[in-house]
Design goal:
Layout (H helix, E strand, L loop, with lengths): L1 H18 L6 H5 L8 H23 L5 H23 L5 H23 L6
């Protein structure tokens, strides 16, 4: 249980530190034109991803009771890590993006470890 607390707390803090500044980086992400054609996707992604980080911090608070939610965390991490690697193999993303995708895959594996090592809640 202590392991799960650390893993999910670390993931939540890391995610917030990484994602929150993106609210102020739209122009840099947009490239030379300085305008994203669908800014709602950009801001929707950031907001949804930040909500997942909040979930990780909540799981860290009570991993036994919230053990089933750990599986949703695994899916959240795979949803970025797997496509990034597929895109990299097609030559469509840069190496720094692959580094962040790899971190998500490592976190997915750690979430699975936390799930396996955390006992189910008693009825």
């Amino acid at each position: 249980m202590r392991l799960a607390r650390w893993i999910f707390r670390l993931a939540g803090i890391y995610g917030i530190l990484l994602l929150a500044p993106m609210y102020f980086l739209e122009r840099q992400v947009a490239g030379p034109a300085g305008v994203l054609p669908h800014a709602e996707y950009y801001y929707g992604f950031i907001g949804t991803a930040l909500a997942a980080q909040a979930l990780f911090l909540i799981i860290a608070h009570d991993p036994i009771r919230l053990r089933p939610a750990m599986l949703a965390g695994v899916l959240e991490k795979l949803a970025f890590g797997v496509p990034v690697w597929a895109l990299w193999l097609q030559g469509r993303v840069a190496a720094p993006v692959v580094a962040f995708g790899t971190i998500d895959l490592v976190l997915a594996a750690l979430f699975v470890l936390a799930y396996v090592r955390t006992p189910p809640a008693r009825a």
